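Re: that chain you flagged

S.,

Sorry for the slow reply, it's been a week of failed gels. I finally had a moment to sit down with the sequence you sent. For the record, here it is as I used it:
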Amino acid sequence: MRLLKATLLITLTVSGLCFTAQAQAPLDIRIALVIGNSAYPGSPLINPVNDSRAMGDALRRLGFSVVELENAQRLEMMQAVTKVRDALKGKQGVGMLYYAGHGVQLDWLNYLVPVNARVRKSDDVPGQTVGIDSVMEAFKEAGNRMNIVVLDACRDNPFDDKVATKGLAPIDAPPGTFMAFATSAGNVAEDGDAASGNGLYTQFLLQELKAPSARLEDVFKRVKLQVRQKSEGRQVPTDSSNLDEEFSFSGGFSKAARVSEAARIERYQIEKAAWDRIKGSQSADDFFAFLRLYPSGFISEIAQFRVDQLKTPLLVAQLARDGLATLASGKNRFSLGDEYTLITTDLITKIVRSEAQKVTFADNQRVEINNGVTVYDQMGGLIKDDSGIKDPAMLLVPADIALGKQWRSSFQNRISQFDARTYIDFKVVVWRTLTSQEQSRRCSRSTCPVSPRSVAALLGSKARRGLSRRPCGWCATTARCATAAVC
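Prediction finished late last night. Pasting the structure tokens below so you have them in one place:
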């Protein structure tokens, strides 16, 4: 079974250097380093300086102080990083790097290329460029509350391929950091032309920054969708998020607002109605449009998976350094005849159960285990088990797994004519390689905090009795109910 060839651990509980300044959001110090490098001898680019000027203006309007560099040499870039670090130190602020220009990777490290870089051999790269890790270290030293790194830096490798590798290497964002990349790891982004005035990625980012009060992650999700559509799959942006706080460019930090049950039900019903209208469509454009409206909705992960089923990405992302591939969105994760063992632990009774599982039916939409006792979709969403039928599927795994990945799931569970609606927020908090039986596998741990007493409130005694027979089938609605390890 492809989904479970990676060990999956899930713990769930329910419920020219200058400063230009602009008015800051209350209690919110923001400083951005914005760099655009175009004038490379022998490999000039058209739009990075245009991009950095437009981005600097946009960030000022959003309350950032901006440090700007155009066609910068290495020393200027290093001095600017230091200046931003010192300005942020001890202020618990937001540090941001926006870079447009050439970028390269060497030995799994990423580098920004100054216009005066002279690289003839691989050993020259670290001393002639600026490592992204040095910027991240500066932000760490500043003690920032949040870091945002946007790299429109994969426009090409200006050096011989024997010296450095094209594109940027995959990176997992450190805690408190959001990283956005103009294209997938190991690939190059489109610089655009003189008529467009901006690179493809920055063009859509500037547009989305105008959206009022948009969540940080939602801004970049919408950018990704539009770039992918506009380029017809030749360029697919990526991001890595490891944030614990809500942030928007226009509003700053915000505590998660308490949403009344009535408002949450209404929000879900509107999204579910939109989903029901398109869920049987064979057009990827319908799902792109849905994701534009609900980039982080209750059904968004299913929609993303459907996009990738219907329109396979043209690019192949570079593998991580350990050589292990993550679960690809849109690829079938189950095959007929797959067998595995499901081990469940009831953390209330401490009872551990081991159950043999075999895929007895599988097509592109539906997967039946043990002749239909349990039913999944091809993403790994749970549709049916002995605790009831879920509509839509309970999203135990997202379309794509990465450290810090967050997603939502909401579904109606029916058992013995009793309906219960459940809302769940997930986050991947551990993402590492484990070795079992001499095979290396990627392992994730996801958490979802909610109230310990939700079972009684949501399910009632009849459904709870069903739960006690197989707690992990309904672990998203119990308090620290289960840890499942599946190989």
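What I noticed first: Residues 261-278 form the longest helix (18 residues).

Talk soon,
D.
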